[in-house]
Amino acid sequence: MTEAVAGPRSNRRPGWMRRWALPVVVAVTIATAWGADRFLTRSPMAGIVPGDAEWIAVAGDFPAFWRALEASDVRSRMARAGKFPQGEWMRGVRDAFGIRPTPSRWRNWLGPGLVCARARGAVGISARPGLLLRTCVFLFAPPPDAHGIRTHGDWSYAWRDGFLVASRSPSYVTSALRGDPVDRPAEKVAIDIRWTGAPPGEVTIRAADGLPVRGKIELEVPPLGAPLTLVDAFPVPAIAAVYGSNAEALAPVTDALIAWLPGGEFVRDILLDTVGILPEESLGDGSESAFAWISVDLAGNVPIPEWIALQRRTTAMARLAPPAEAVSFEWNGLSGWVLPWVGERLSFCMAEDGTHRYWAGREGQMPEWAGRLRETPAVDGDIAVEISWDKAALAALQLVRWAGARELIERRNSEDVERELVPRLELLLPLGALRLSGRSDGTSVRFDGHLAMNPGNES
Amino acid sequence: MKRLAILIGLAVCHSLARAGEQSLIEARYGVDELVTISGSGMLTIGQDTRGRITVCRWPGPGFPDHLGVRHDAGAGAAVPNGLQWGVGIGDDLFWPGDMRLEATQEYDGLVGNIGKTTLRIMGTSAVIVQLTCVHPATGALVSHIKIEGADSPPSVYWSADISPCTRLLPGIPMADDRLDSLNDFAAFALEGERRVCHFRPSAPGAVEWERAAALLHLPRPSLDQWTAFNAGVWAVYTSFNPILAYACDTSNALPRTRPEAEGAPARLHAVGQTASWIRIEPSRRDGAYEASVVLAFGSSYEKANARVKATETRGAMNLLKDVREYWAKYASESQIPENAGAATALAATRALTTLRTLCDDSRGAIVRSPAVRPALARDWPRHGAWIAYALDLAGQHAEAKRHLMFYLDAIRTERTPGAPIGSIPASLYGDGTAASPDMVLDAEGTAWALWCIRRHGDFLESDARKKFFASAWERAALAAQFLVDWADSRRGFPERSFDPDLGHDGKPPALLFAVHQAMVCIAEMAAEIERPVPADWTRRMGQLDVLVRNLVLDESTEWGTDFPLPLLLGEWLSSKNLNPGVRARIEAGGDERLRQLPSLGGHAAARALCEAVMLFRNDPGRLGQIREMLPDLLPRSVTVTDENGETRPARPDALDAAYCFVAISIAHGD
Question: For residue B478, what pLDDT is reported?
């Protein structure tokens, strides 16, 4: 039997240490980097924006929002229709920065929070990037100019308090550096959008089936005091419809639209001039009213929007005396009149049955509209809005093609319209419908609903 | 999309704007202060109170304006920079809008349409005189500047904010003003050829814009590189004097001081919303400094440049002489009443010159005015009838006939929604495209077209008349059938159609008179060329006659105060044996109008004069009264008084010119 002889004392590390040293170093490095990354990206703020931003969109966790959006039925409906909305901007990001964006890559490079805003005509973003981007900037970025602004391609960017601000407009970056921090919203898979224009408001969009939204807009709409009974009551499919109390009471909504439209005041003057030919009591009557935009008539040399509207009262309304120039008519047994304004395509047609007044912009719509109201369930709220995206897209496609053929789109001709605008508008086709309803407290309207409700899911 | 919605709204409203009155559009978006106009039937220009060329329409007065505008931030009003001279004296640089200049703008001489601008630099003896016109033979714009009394040699600049427009939008007559940001493309200077060019190819898309932007990176792109773009609208200008510096830019900010202008770096090309200016070395003659520029348009560089070249051999003074001779010849060939006094004859000549200037050579359209705001560069058949009638009274029968053939071609032969067969668009561009939205149906315009076609026959010999009526018959019959069918089935009154006085559809008495007279005219034409008159036409004429008679006999109608006198009331009266009491009542209305005449001005004065002569054309006594008023009234029909009580020249307008000429011609015994 041979006695074991103890060899010379080994100075080598124990085997476990040899085996684990590298993984431990890597793990510690990763953990440190991860910790540093978490530390660097952590902030109760999502970013900074110029003080005079017209609108601000904030995501508390943009990659999470993105993933949730990918999992929603909106994305699957678009995929089934062969529409990939992110393709174009993904290509843009890849062309600009050499990286194809994905939710994980976004988080690794720019962190979870994201703020996007528009000020003085320029759009920019702000985020709190992690270690990766900061290291790359430290190692490879050119020195900043006197204002602390660097450039990459046609992008300008700068840092303040750990936040990155980037835009194609250097003046946006300059003003954002002097701007305000924006709080990070609590909800992870949502984007908050707020705007300062007239009227100011805010909306939260959640990345879930049908894109649920809720928000508030500063509009002095008088409360209806009862559920809406006309929602979806139109017998003909509409591009867009608005339901609320009487037309006079909805004047703040009209004013808001006018403020949004360039030259809107002029259009209002014209409309008031036009509406002046109607009997004075036309607009104030009715306890509930509805307006629907049906289609665009492109048969003539100028597009004409086609519309129908309804006024309803639970108690009997006095008959609306026909204006002197009106011509008496009868549709589906209801008496009424046509007040020609300009030609057969622009007129005011009205039929009434004692509790309803049916209006249309041309006589041809009245036979399938007057007295043909659909019975629908009441909807809780003081105001409701619906947009049918496929019909809106088809109308918009007609209009952009019409405009493109007439050199009415800046720096774009018909070929460009087909190549660039038509695919974008076609993205709207599978979106279903926007359905919002709101409750007024007299000074503002709180609303909720869906931006892209699947028509198959409608109750 | 937002812009499009506004545009369509504006188009509709523009068509609804009341003719001759300040409409909502004019109140909100302003009115061009055109004082003088010049043209050749192709290029047509207008100058404002300070001598700036603020409108420049090509290939005719009924086509788009090609000058840039800037929109005031507040009211949205568009102010053209236009084409203008600048003069540097000492360190100062004076552009026409400079308030240190005292400006007058008028026509040069009694005949012709050369615009003369006199600018006095306040506090100095320096006087700047500009002569500007369009040369009829070449269709090129010629402008000459003369500076007298300057203490030191001046520097001279010519600025051009040209924004070529390649679209004529059916139904939307604002392609050149409200859509200015969609116009223009590029400007470049060719130092060797001494040319500055502005151009826009037809329907440029993203590819063309990118190609043009790529040329910006080259120090001196060649002419071939620019002319490789599609044909479209090209403007080329040069000076007869040496050109010292060129500047093409996307900023329309002009240098404000002479050192700034002289120190400006040369910029030889620009892409986008471009403007350009050149510095010219003036020539010295008899102590004064002079310079000239010439500018021409064409569908390509070659065509525009050929027009410029054709003027270069003549020199500015000879070109101005050509223009004077052309208009003197035109006046001498026209029938200006010989017994009218000098002032009346001058007014008649001026009216006729305005009409000729606004004739579009391509198809025979005659627009109201080249003005951009409001969009009056259109031919309205309801107004054009008077213009054709005035031309016939002046002996310009060939022009009148071309104008009427233009209307005959515009009569619709296919139905579209709101536009029945036989109707005529309410207004037309120079190429005959409808300039009003289709739903604006102007039945009265169609009736007026038939009336003036028949009236034109009165000025022709028997054979020529028959030939003309025969050539017009097929289309005229379509128009007549439209008027027969366009009737209220219960009462027989013409069906509702667009009424410019209301701003929407209506049934004004003037519509009844116009349709009635149109049916009388078509029956006379049929008799002349021995065509059968369909039974429904005869029945309709009888029905209309009863309706007109009822309206005339209705004692509740206050003639002369209820509404403007129907211009054809006199024609109807002269064809009827009426109860003397009824006739006296109507004439009393006319007399009331005569009493109001001295208090009227501008468009209202011109129209009232025409109403009066048409009503009393068979009444020598009252015609005599009108004749005596003419020397006082005519100058007032070409001026307007604003809300501050200040009188300024009215915008040259073909309709007012026609009213005045008809009044002069009939009052002095046509």
Answer: 98
Q: Are B498 and B446 in contact (CB under 8 A)?
A: no
Strand, helix or coil for residue B354:
helix
Structure tokens at A79: 């995929």
Show residues of chain A in contact with B15, CB under 8 Å: 342
Q: Which residues contact B650 (CB under 8 A, 6 or more apart)?
A: B602, B603, B637, B638, B639, B640, B656
**B148 close to B129: Cβ distance less than 8 angstroms:** yes
CA B307 to chain centre: 23
What is the SS3 assignment for A449? strand
Structure token digits, residue B299: 């569908």
At the topology level, CATH places domain B34-327 in Beta-galactosidase; Chain A, domain 5 (2.70.98)
Which residues, in sequence order, are CB contacts of B527 under 8 Å at separation 6+? none
Alpha-carbon distance values, B167 to A403, B204, B372 (Å): 12, 11, 15
The DSSP line for A256-324 is HHHHHSTTHHHHHHHHHHHHTTS-GGGTT--SEEEEEEEEEE-SSSS-EEEEEEEEE-SSPPPP-PPPT
Inform me whether the C-beta atom of residue B11 falls under 8 Å from chain A C-beta atoms: yes
Q: Which of A274, A407, A411 sits opposite B166 (nearest CB)?
A: A407
B17 pLDDT tier (thresholds 50, 70, 90): very low
Chain B segment 145-184 residues within 8 A of A by beta carbon are 166-167, 169-172, 179, 181-182
Nearest by CB to A345, from B13, B418, B496: name it: B418
Q: Is B491 on the interface with A (CB under 8 A)?
A: no
Q: What angle do CA B603, B49, B259 make, to 5 degrees?
A: 165
* Min Cα–Cα distance to chain B from A28, Å: 52
CATH number attached to the domain at B334-667: 1.50.10.10
Residue B75 has pLDDT above 50, yes or no: no
ipTM: 0.88
Residue B257 has pLDDT above 60, yes or no: yes
Provide the 8-state DSSP code for B538.
Answer: H
How many residues are there in chain B?
Answer: 670
Cβ-contact B540, B469 below 8 angstroms: no
CA-to-CA dists, residue B459 to A55, B395, B623, B659, angstroms: 69, 8, 22, 18
- A282 pLDDT band, cuts 50/70/90, is low
At B152 the three-state DSSP class reads coil
Q: What backbone phi and psi angles, to 5 degrees, belong to A234?
A: -65, 135
Instruction: Report pLDDT digits (tens) over B297-332.
Output: 999 999 999 999 999 989 999 999 999 999 999 999
Query: Is the predicted pLDDT of residue B22 greater than 50, yes or no?
Result: no
Cα separation, B1 vs A403, in Å, equals 9
Q: Six-digit token pair at A58?
A: 């904030």
Q: What angle do CA B383, B386, B389 make, to 5 degrees?
A: 150
Q: How many CB atoms lie within 10 A of CB B176?
A: 29
- Yes or no, beta carbons of A416 and B4 under 8 Å apart: no
Q: What is the pTM of this model?
A: 0.87
| Residue A346 to residue B205, Cβ atoms within 8 A | no
**Where along chain A do its domains lie?**
29-209, 216-457
- The answer to whether the beta carbons of residues A36 and A104 sit under 8 Å apart is no
Q: Identify whether the C-beta of residue B566 lies closer than 8 Å to the C-beta of residue B552.
A: no
Q: Percent of chain A at pLDDT above 70?
A: 86
Q: Which residue ranges make up each domain of chain B? A: 34-327, 334-667
Instruction: Look up residue B82 and give its two tokens.
Output: 């236009």
Q: What is the pLDDT of residues B372-418, one digit of tens each?
A: 888 889 999 999 999 999 999 999 999 999 999 999 999 999 988 88
Taking only residues 20 to 79 of chain B, the set having a beta carbon closer than 8 angstroms to any beta carbon of chain A reads 24, 28, 76
Q: Measuring CA to CA, which residue among B414, B423, B413, B348 is closest to residue B381?
A: B423
Residue B2 at interface with chain A, using a CB cutoff of 8 Å:
yes
A40-56 pLDDT tens trace: 888 888 999 999 999 99
